[in-house]
Amino acid sequence: MRSETLNIESIKDLQEKLSSLIGVSGHEEDVNNFILNEIETQELADNVWIDSLGNILAIKEGNNKDNRILLDAHIDEIGFMISHIEKKGFLRFVLIGGFDTRILLGQSVILKSNTGKIFHGIIGSKPPHLTSLEERKKQVEVSNMYIDIGLVSEEQVQDNNISIGTTGTLYSPFEEFPNGMIRGKAFDDRTGCNVLLQIMKLLKENEQYNDTVLFNFAVQEEIGGRGAVTGTYALNPTIALAIENTTAADVPGIRESENPVDIGKGPAITVADRSMISHPKINKRIIKNAEIENIPYQIKKPLYGGTDAGKIHISRRGVPCSVVSVPCRYIHSPTSLLKLQDLYNTIRLIDAFIKNPAGIKI
Ligand code: CO
Hints:
Blueprint: H1 8-20, H2 29-41, E1 47-50, E2 56-60, E3 64-74, E4 79-85, E5 91-96, E6 108-112, E7 118-124, H3 133-137, E8 146-148, H4 154-159, E9 167-170, E10 175-177, E11 181-184, H5 187-205, E12 211-218, H6 226-235, E13 239-247, E14 268-270, H7 280-293, E15 298-300, H8 309-312, E16 321-329, E17 336-339, H9 340-355
Parallel strand pairs: 3-12, 3-13, 13-16, 14-15
Antiparallel strand pairs: 1-2, 2-12, 4-5, 4-9, 6-7, 6-9, 7-8, 10-11, 11-17, 14-16, 16-17
Helix pairs in contact: 1-5, 5-9, 7-9
Residues 74, 188-189, 221, 244-245 line the site of cobalt (II) ion.
């Protein structure tokens, strides 16, 4: 491992930058400008371009042009879209992707106007003082919530370039916790983007890689893996890995048999989720490399979640696939919590997968 390139501090810095960008599905331009700039200024790929959906696709040529490994991470995040503007300037909204609606009320939000200006807001509904005891027992529907950004009329909202279709997301600042943990928004899946960028840096530094490595920083995963469909078609891989965040439920009230993964136990390898059964030979190659390099790993319990690999493995004539994830608590809430050591070990594992000749024939 070339430690001068890969260190926890630089991984953390990049995570903070990626996490604070806003890129709700279909409106990922800030994230893809940032990533494209990283790749171009540091010359991290032989070829990089943005496709018509907004995916950033990149190629790092190996000696062998026929073995083509795709690494996919999605750049979008879940959020909301403005659906109606009230006369007094309050904003009604619909959700883009799967938030836990029980936790929305009272949350701080961040919204990006159509000219890119950032507004902070609060999700409100009818105040508790004005609701009956019966009403308070029921969950508030999203259609009865609104966003208050301090603008006081429909005209003022329009003058600030906020309209039906404007997007935003829940606000949560990046912070460090004890025991090498960090919290922030959109770790799903800016963490995967971080892994891909770190892998590109390692590839640049070392010319002994044999296989050609393809990258898709994919749009619109949270609404059905749409960027993965077009990106995979264009890159035409022979095998693929989706790099993700996955739900660690190592918290009170969860039986061990129900918990998919733990934080702190290393990258999680998927055997099956709701969108795909991982190819056994790909998993064999991941595990063999983990053992060669002494990297901790865990097997994620089936069948939780779904990823871009659900689309990738049925692309063209079929692409043998698996998923490697950084375990993360509180995914799809305003904030996520992960351990930097798990992120570091995920990068090491993907690096080993590409570098080592532990190629198990497909
Ligand atoms: Co994800």
